[in-house]
Amino acid sequence: MSNHDSFFKEIAYLTCLSIEGKIDEDHFARLENLLQTKPLARECYLMLINNDLCLHDCDVIRCFSDESLIDSGIDLQGLADYERIAPAIEIPQKEPQPELIQSVQRQKVVFAFSKRSLFTLAVSVAAILFFVIFLRVTSPQPGKEVAIISDSIHAKWANDGVPVSNGSRLMDNTPPLLLREGYAELLFDNHAQITIQGPAEFQILESDMIKLNYGRLYSVIPPEAYGFQVSTPHSKIIDLGTEFGVKQDMDGDTEIHVLKGKTVLVSGIKGKKINIELSEGQARKLDGATGSVRKIACNRDSLIRQIDSKSGLIWKGQSFSLADVVGDGNGFGTGAIDKGIDPVDPAEFKIFAKGTDALQGDAEYHPFAGHPYIDGVFVPNGEFGPVQISSEGHQFIDFPVTDNQYWSGIFNGAWHEGGGYKIPRHNFRLDGAIYGTISNPAICMHANQGITFDLNAIRSKTNVLDITRFTAKVGLSESVFDHASLRLGPLKVRVPKASFYVLIDGQVKFEAVDRGPEDKPLDIGIELSESDRFLTLVASQGSDGENTYDWALFAEPFLHFEMR
Amino acid sequence: MQEFNEKNKAKKFMSLLVPNQRRIHAFIAYLVPNRSDAEDILQDTLSEMWNKFDTYEENSNFVAWGTAIARFKIMSHQKRHRSSRLYFDLSTMDLLQTEAESKKGSRYLEMQIDILKRCVKKMSDKEKEYLGLRYEKRLTFRGISEEFGISMQGVHKAISLIHAQLLRCVRFNMQAEDLL
């Protein structure tokens, strides 16, 4: 949807509300704000009013179905007006009487919609008011079903006598629901999706309005639910086609974080009228005591955006770490540092606690059964022709000839220790940044090693999310230059070189040949589609003919998601 | 004689009002978007115009004279409903009035009606059905919601989306004809 489309929809929505007499103060304030600040809003608003008048009065609807009338030159409106307000022929009034016109005009059917005409039909205004109020108090409008609890994880509800579980239909105009703990996903009939994080108290006011008394929620509003509102004790957030999160504290403070699209924040505490449009990446905090609003950083990682009870997924928008998977984790931080796989003997995960000597590859692809997300591992060597790189037989023909050796294994972390010069254990560094930690994850992959991940297996466990991108940094650790014994010894003769490859289903998507520790790390960014299955990462020795000191790593190897 | 003068006056009033009422109605609707209130104010305005027709200067701008009376009626109406906050403040009304006056008079309105008819013709059958129920049969939103079996909010959304489409179409065509 273009910006203009959104704008036209909003102005049409507000104007129609106003024409029908259904607009509330907040929406009216929004309309007035637009008219005061945007000339385009004024132009569109006048056009909408004219269109409505013409549709109402000018027989436009009938005209398109009866072609003969369109160009007949007959001023039907003029005739109708004249009939309505012309003085009756028999009027013998000596002086002009207002009733002469009014009495004819008030026969218009439009008065059936007028609130004033409604009251004038009553025996007395007081009686009617009493009747209306009495009806509202004793016969409240029954709520109607407007949403469903579509999913929940560890949800504990605290509503006596009200069964609340997955599949429960929720009605509007009902008392607040209290989610004591856990997470619940609500799907409204207009397809608005609201994820609530307990403890939280919320109330469904209408088919397109939810009130959050306290707690956190995240809303995903599709185009058909445009105008959906989240209200809090002191504010209203009106959707203009967006994803946003709301935190409501018990002390009255409200935070709103807009992650996609646009929204409007409206508030009026202590006479401070607030009417702010917020776009993607913007956030505000409303002080419940003073009514003031201040800018805050938009926090993309603190709100639960998606849950899936089948996989146990609780997604805050965080990326999926392949280093964590290599450490026997679920991609979201459950893996262990120093845990990994031997590319020749991958029976199960191992802990890599110490450095090793050079180890020999076997020119075989080894499927790995220890983790559903890891398809297999191998030692790349182009000497024997195409190298198998997946369990389904994908091959790559352009790996260089190597000495068929590797060091240690493929593990979650990035360090080196030992070797002929007895290098002390230290973490790898790329361009000054230390890797192999929880905050700076990496897959340690001393040349020559390769690992293949199964994206379909990942999709099946995160089935409400699409995998859209793979990113990482690659390079040889510059820490090799820290050790005098190496600098003054072997590095004087030969600076190590290694090559990096990223393949999707056997097709190379990234290649960096003969990178040295003196080179800056390279960024990788590869778009992924639904049909991509096997993601292969490889570090092989370079054209220098050796893998010694090829301290290679894939730093920050992440898969990125979008909500489906 | 007096009766003849009265009939003459009425005829004269009508000859001025009939071709211009739409513009006066539009002026009121711009400043008072609630249709029901706007129509009440229109009745009051037309009454006052008739009452004060003797003060109208022949050959002067009838619409300007009528809209001046209308503006006064709008202010009175607002004063009577002071507690309601659903009225534009003076600065907004001034902006809207300036915008309305910048349009090129009755030709602009007439062109817009023609273009609107063409745009309505292009709508889908379902959209025309909605418009027919709302504007031809004058059903309320409740009536339409019962006719289609959807919620009133749904009806409102549907009608406002149709209006957004018509707005886009009318605006595009008016730009194409150099009317904007």
Architecture overview:
The complex is a heterodimer of chains A (564) and B (180). Chain A is 21% helix and 37% strand. In chain A, a hairpin with a 2-residue loop joins strand 26 and strand 27. In chain A, strands 1, 2, 3, 4, 5, 6, 7, 8, 9, 10 and 11 form an eleven-stranded mixed sheet that branches. In chain A, strands 14, 15, 16, 23, 28, 30, 33 and 35 form an eight-stranded antiparallel sheet that branches. Chain A has a six-stranded antiparallel sheet with strand order 18-19-29-34-31-32. Chain A is of the alpha+beta class and 564 residues long. Chain B is mainly alpha-helical. In chain B, helix 1 crosses helix 3 and helix 7 packs across helix 8. Classes of the chains: A alpha+beta (564), B mainly alpha (180). Chains A and B meet through helix 1, helix 2, helix 3, helix 4 and helix 6 of A and helix 1, helix 2, helix 4, helix 5 and helix 6 of B.
Properties at a glance:
heterodimer, A: 564 residues, alpha+beta, eleven-stranded mixed beta sheet, B: mainly alpha, 8 helices
